[in-house]
Amino acid sequence: MRTPVDLSKAYRLLNHGPVTLVSSAHGGHQNVMAAAWCMPLDFSPPKVAVVIDKSTYTRELVEASGEFVLNIPGRAIAAQVIGAGGQSGRSLDKFSALGIGRLPADRLAAPLIAGCVGWLECRVIREPHNEQAYDLFLGEVIAASADARVFRDGHWHFDDADAALRTLHYVAGGQFYVSGESLSV
Amino acid sequence: MRTPVDLSKAYRLLNHGPVTLVSSAHGGHQNVMAAAWCMPLDFSPPKVAVVIDKSTYTRELVEASGEFVLNIPGRAIAAQVIGAGGQSGRSLDKFSALGIGRLPADRLAAPLIAGCVGWLECRVIREPHNEQAYDLFLGEVIAASADARVFRDGHWHFDDADAALRTLHYVAGGQFYVSGESLSV
Predict the structure, then answer these.
(1) CATH number of the domain enclosing A10
(2) Which of A41, A113, B126, B158 is the most exposed place for a label (fewest CB within 10 A)?
(3) Is residue B185 included in any domain, yes or no?
(4) How many domains does chain A fold into?
């Protein structure tokens, strides 16, 4: 079901503001954390911005490897998103503890997360001042893919698919809003 | 209906990824543009990040004034969001041309946009390299308010309110997804 997304349309995976899972890898270790604070930053080449706190294990792996994946979870794995956000991978293998599945990425050592509906493989654009002062990381998207059941021809198609594949929009305290109806004006 | 939001909860207005209208003012001129590329950047003091392209009139006004408002539109004004995104305020008064209403802000000269359900009044944190290289602006939120029919006690409450007050999540080509059902895990 995972099919490539043209890089010129990669921003559309993030444009409507879904929560993400940030996956990372370095030196034989892998991790995943939840991140709602991310956004597209440019169309071509596609870039993204994401906040990765200094206290996280993900931060260590991203700084060491210079790469990360933004995975866009479907509704079916909402509980795993909360689990991945509430614990540190420093003391726990979140993949086995939370039953989070992995797929190999196209271009990076960091894994893609199963049960997601979009994947943005990113190389860090080093901006040490942003990283230190704001925990703000910029990345260039070098590969993108999506579940063709809900994203094809450069657009989301939630209306004619299983509701379990809709994206999640995080508020706080374990509460999300699920992507709702499509509105075109 | 507009009621203050505690600054410690201000990030929750943006956390679920709604599209925004960026309003600005300088030297007797005011403008409004649409921006989907924005996100929270910190909790306390609350900060935000938003992309404001070099070609826009908003960019001129924000650079000159050092301030902007992120307005979170409700579904009822979706057509005005598209209108505000597709035309430049340099050659057009979008407020009168599109029938966009304004309210005075609490702390800034930039107006608040009527028909919105949340408002974040921001002072630019000057980061010239980010602005020049990425069109990326950082701001500190110095006042926040929301429509109490849908945001109160630090949480969105879309489920028991008029659907016209739900937030909009922009994809591309005039298409949004409206905030859907609440999901707590």
Answers:
(1) 2.30.110.10
(2) B126
(3) no
(4) 1
- Identify which of A129, A170, A179 has the shortest CB distance to residue B15: A170
Task: Select the residue from B136, B137, B167 to test the A interface by mutation, using most A Cβ atoms within 10 A.
Answer: B136
A153 touches chain B (CB under 8 A): no
Q: Alpha carbon A23 to chain centroid distance? A: 7
Q: How far is CA A145 from CA A14, A110, A164, A169, in A?
A: 12, 15, 18, 20
Neighbours of A97 (CB within 10 A): 12
pTM, to two decimals: 0.97
Whether chain A has a CB inside 8 Å of the CB on B79: the answer is yes
Option in B12, B37, B78 nearest A39 (CB): B37
The ipTM of this complex is: 0.97
How confident is the model over B157-171, as pLDDT tens digits?
999 999 999 999 999
Residue entry with tokens 């004006």: A185
Q: Do A39 and B39 count as a contact with CB atoms less than 8 A apart?
A: yes
The reply to whether residue A177 touches residue B180, judged by beta carbons under 8 angstroms, is: yes
B37-65 pLDDT tens trace: 999 999 999 999 999 999 999 999 999 99
Q: Which tokens go with A97?
A: 């503890």
Give B59-86 pLDDT, tens digit per residue.
999 999 999 999 999 999 999 999 999 8
Domain that holds residue A24: 2-178
What residues pair up with A143 in beta bridges, in sequence order?
A: A121
Query: Over 90: is that where the pLDDT of B87 sits?
Result: no
